[in-house]
Design a protein that fits this description.
Layout (H helix, E strand, L loop, with lengths): L1 H12 L3 E2 L4 E2 L19 H32 L2 H6 L1 H19 L14 H11 L2 H14 L4 E8 L4 E8 L11 E8 L6 H4 L3 H7 L6 H11 L2
Antiparallel strand pairs: 1-2, 3-4, 3-5
Helix pairs in contact: 1-4, 2-4, 5-9, 6-8
The structure holds fe (ii) ion (FE2).
The site of fe (ii) ion has 7 residues, from helix 2.
EC number: 1.15.1.1
Keywords: Manganese, Metal-binding, Mitochondrion, Oxidoreductase
GO molecular function: metal ion binding; superoxide dismutase activity
Length: 226
Amino acid sequence: MALRTLINRKTLTTTAPLGFRGLQTFSLPDLPYDYGALEPAISSEIMQLHHQKHHQAYITNYNKALEQLDAATTKGDASTVVKLQSAIKFNGGGHVNHSIFWNNLAPVREGGGEPPKGSLGWSIDNSFGSLEALIQKMSTEGAALQGSGWVWLALDKEFKRLVVETTANQDPLVTKGPSLVPLLGIDVWEHAYYLQYKNVRPDYLKNIWKVINWKYASEVFEKENP
Ligand SMILES: [Fe+2]
């Protein structure tokens, strides 16, 4: 737990000073496992491309947009400040979402796919009937999501309940409500499965549960819902 939590915190706060105003930028986090460690559920080729190319591209473009925002703000260029918001949301969301996603996965030999224990397990049973019912619901909603996006299991801190949500494109979960805390996010963009599963997204959504890191989701749940 400690290692993954540290990686996640580091990922979302890793910074490098840029410019005299100390603008903070972001960098690609290491994965907490090897690229091939999730096989056969997710191939090594997919994991490497997804991490090194796709996640890196979001970070590169996020940093670029932040630098442009900094320059536009300094100049008092309100039009450009507004124009940059969509790039910041898309690429910043891509960085946030993927940083969570890597922690939501684990090799089978390290507990991937093992059902959640403790309070998260009970809450899932109370909210959805059973873990199997939750998996069915998330798989169905993920398969039905048009275009690209994410399906989430979230804790709603305001109402102290578990919810399933979907977000389009790279919208982070917080766009669906400020009190939502992501416990588990599944990437249903084609780049997450196409090389292995082609156009059959339901097969990807069937197999990914074999490498879901419920321990990580439980740790976040217990921290946010003491
Ligand atoms: Fe992705």
